[in-house]
Specification:
The protein has eight helices and no strands. With about 190 residues, it is an all-alpha fold. Helix 2 crosses helix 3, helix 6 packs across helix 8 and helix 7 packs across helix 8. The termini are far apart.
């Protein structure tokens, strides 16, 4: 039985020692994954909160872990990445709400149109699929450098550039089709 299997078995049996050992072993890795997603946009406390959430989720969902699909490290890395993205999204929504409240005299129709357009673009980016959607979000929304994206996604910089170029063409076509369909409806 591997060390990961022992840890998961202990966590499934709700043995705190097993969780503590997992925390000791994997906190540096989980913290790195989270920091790579969040970067310097959030405080150290926010990063620590997401790290805690990852291990709380492991404790609560240990029964769902399937060692045949991957190792515990991979599972925790995916969980950390997803939770960090959610935390970042919640921050962005909070900032947008604050900005909207701070600008009460802005024309409501223009703001509504801008919000609808943003929603359509983000939905279309998500339709590109992974890793293209992640590359787009990191590059255009989080202003990350191609070098950093390539490093995080473990792919050559030229591949990231190619995916951005092809993604722009796909996105343009998707938005043109969507716009054409909307004009036909009107």
């Amino acid at each position: 039985m591997t060390e990961d299997e022992k840890l998961i078995q202990g966590i499934r049996r709700k043995r705190r020692g097993a969780l503590e050992k997992a925390i000791d072993l994997y906190t540096p890795y989980v913290g790195t994954v989270i920091y790579n997603v969040i970067g310097s946009t959030m405080t150290k406390e926010d990063v620590e909160e997401v790290i805690s959430d990852v291990f709380i989720s492991l404790w609560r969902n240990a029964d769902k872990f399937d060692g045949k699909k991957g190792c515990l490290r991979s599972y925790l890395g995916a969980s950390a990445r997803n939770m960090a993205k959610n935390k970042l999204a919640s921050l962005r929504v909070s900032v947008e709400l604050t900005e909207n409240v701070a600008a009460p005299y802005a024309e409501p129709n223009k703001r509504l149109e801008r919000d609808e357009e943003r929603e359509i673009v983000i939905h279309s980016i998500n339709e590109l699929g992974e890793p293209d959607s992640e590359i787009f979000m990191r590059y255009y929304y989080y202003d990350e450098k191609i070098r950093n994206i390539a490093k995080i996604l473990k792919m050559p910089e030229n591949t990231v550039k190619t995916k951005l170029a092809r993604g722009r063409v796909k996105l343009k076509n998707m938005l043109q089709r969507r716009n054409g369909n909307e004009q036909q409806i009107r």
